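Lab notes, practical 5.
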Amino acid sequence: MNRFLCFLCLFAVVAGLGGNAGCSRQHYRLKADHEIRSVLKQSNNDSRWKVSSPGIIPDAASRMFDPHHPDVEPMPCDDPAAHKKMHFVDGKRGSKHWHDNGDTGYVENPCWRQFLLVNDNGEVPLDKEKAVELARLHSPEYQTVLENLYLAAMNVSREQFRYDVQFYGNGFLSYGVAGGREPTLRNDASLRAERLLATGGTWTAELANSITWTLNGQGDWKMNTSLINVSVVQPLLRAASRKVVLENLTQSERDFLAELRKTVLFQQGHYTRIVTGTAPRNTGVSSVGGGFYRLLADQIQIQNQRQNIISLEENLERFGEMFAAGQLNNNYQVKETEQSLLSSQSSLLGRINTYQANVESYVSALGLPPDLKVSISDPLLEQFQLTSPSLTALMEDVGGFLAAIRKKDQPLPENFRDELKNVIKRAEGEMALLDQDLETLQKSMPERRAGLKNLEVRLAERIKEERVDPHIYDVNFFEERVTELRTKDIPKNLSRLRALFVLLDVIAQSDEPTLREMIRNHSFDAATMEALDELNDLLKLEDSGASVADADRLVQQRDLEVMTEQLKTLREQAGVESSSKPPRETKRIIADLRQKDEYRDWIRGVVSVFQYELMSLSLMQTRARLDAMTLAPVSVDTDEAFRIASENRLDWMNRKAQLVDTWRQIDIVADKLKGVFDLKLNGSLGTADNRGVHFGKETGSLDVRFEWDTPLTRYNEMMDYRKSQIDYQKARRDYYTYVDSVQSELRNVLRDVQMSQINFEINRNAILVGTIRVDLMQLQMEQPPQRGAKIDTNTSQQLINALNGLMNSQNDFLNTWVTYQTQRMLLDLYMGTMTLDDKGRWIEPSGKDSKKSEITSQPELVPTLAVPIIKTSRLNRRYVE
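Output from the prediction step:
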């Protein structure tokens, strides 16, 4: 007996511990994930709102990844003062098991940086696609949206579980002694099954068993009884409708569908924000200072500012030389250029500082720490390099070489002939590059024509009202401009460059005595003479003052009067006003003439013309590249865009569903106005003896009853019902206000798209004009006035204005492109036609903006009092009448 009691007690303890412990944490976690995956699989099957990668476990390369076991999480770092409360609180000793899972000093994944690919400078290269990839990998906001979808699926699983058969089991084991009687040992156990029906009814089946041992010391007396109980409750009035009973399940499914759509919208908006910096309001994406396009634009604008500074530095040096040579009345133009240079340098520092702050803000928006070093680059930059960097470098080198030639007090560089050969080779490469640009321009011609014709058809009236030059969108003017570029300007420029190659080659191949002899006697070969004839209108190889021989003859004469008279004759021949000069001034002029060197001046003249033709080549390159640039077409009108949006916008679908959800609440709340009238059935069957398994009908019972509760007081329910009606009217107003906002949104974005198309063409022409203006001013600087004349006092200001105007035109052109790309992406998103691939990248539309939607939907009815009620009940008809 004692052994039996010990065994029984041990069984009770083990059973109790097992019941309390249940399955492991891991078991329940994995089972929950399995249930949620099942819900996602059932619902995430519509291509319009199919969510890519709906899992909530971050990748191992993510900063959010948790390397610890989720069911045995170590304690993170705690505040020391607060941590004491876990071990000793209110004079009481706390638990000593808080550190059983260990401690960790990390909150973020300590290894995430190891997965980053860096360049030789320790920077993470970021292009557009890499930025999107890192944002999906590290963004906490992106992870939160996926977790919200998981939680919505969890609610669906909970509601579905309510309609499954629920099993419950319980029991207890007790030992007791009462009133001097023999001690008893009793074990009660029961198993119950319940189920909720879609009609609102519930049924319950329960099996209970009780075993009692009387421990009298002589022999145990045992009593074993069992009871089967079945009950059914079916409401007949309140809570008897399927619409009421299934409301929670229905709402959870509808909420989950809405969450799926919100997740897809968020992914689209997240891409838009990362790329453009714009956070569409209907996507739930938080705003950020600027996107990837903005950072690229900042880079290009910094480059433009630097180029402006380089030009100002060169012109400051040139004005300084002119002032020293007496070609300026005073140094005002020098100081004016210097002031503009200092202002540009300050502006550059400000741009760089702002850019660095924007980069750090952008990196933070990706979910990464701001101290992470990144380099922003993308092939998108290349199309805005209107002049190739190699040609810019060539012009800078030629400018430096020309400056060395002008310094007659210093000998020519020893390797200048080798440098000339290298310059010729590099220039030939730039000519070949121009051929590639022309080929690109030729390929883009059909698209450019189509774009201009579309712009003319759609915007002619608006442009006419706003007095915009019609040449901006005139196809004929564009074709004439390109034809002139291909057949006249470029061939002329290339022909002169080839002629200059001949002259430069003569300089590079001839030593100084030989070339001096050629220059003095004009003993050039036929090819050189042909090149000189080709460049006759540009080459000015003879000074307008006098020849070296004339200067030498004047110096040898001792009679100052004769020298003065001879000098007057020479000045008259040069077209300079003749005047009688004192002997000292005459000597100075003659000394200047003696510095003339036909050899060096001839080389300077050839290289000066070569520099000018390189500038012309850069202009040809700019014109070709500018006219080759196109904008992706957008031809949808506002009515078509609104129709497409009404059929495809996911948030519009959710808005319709929300309106119906509010309408449904009227019936749900009205159900509580009804009285309670329930049918209840209760049956039981017990055992006929102490064996616990023998059931007899004499121990059975059946009870059928009706229970009701008359609605004598329904004050709160009445108020709730009236509130639900008011809520619905408010929802109606919110809905058609939302529809109006969508239409306004589409009209605004299409208006911005059209305006960007116009501005793109205007800024394209502005750059062409600005480039020509700068080149003309630079040419004027390279061709100083005749001896004795002064530089125009407005030259410096005109040059500064030309440089700033060109820089502003380039920045405006770039900003217009960024705006257009942003608005085109937003248009695709606002129409609900935006599509992302498996990696979250935008699949750009290809004629998608004007396609007919294949999705069937309910007709769109914006509720107004002017719309007649087509289908209504008798009560509604009477109410309307």
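Observations recorded by the TA: The mean pLDDT is 82. Residues 715-782 form the longest helix (68 residues).
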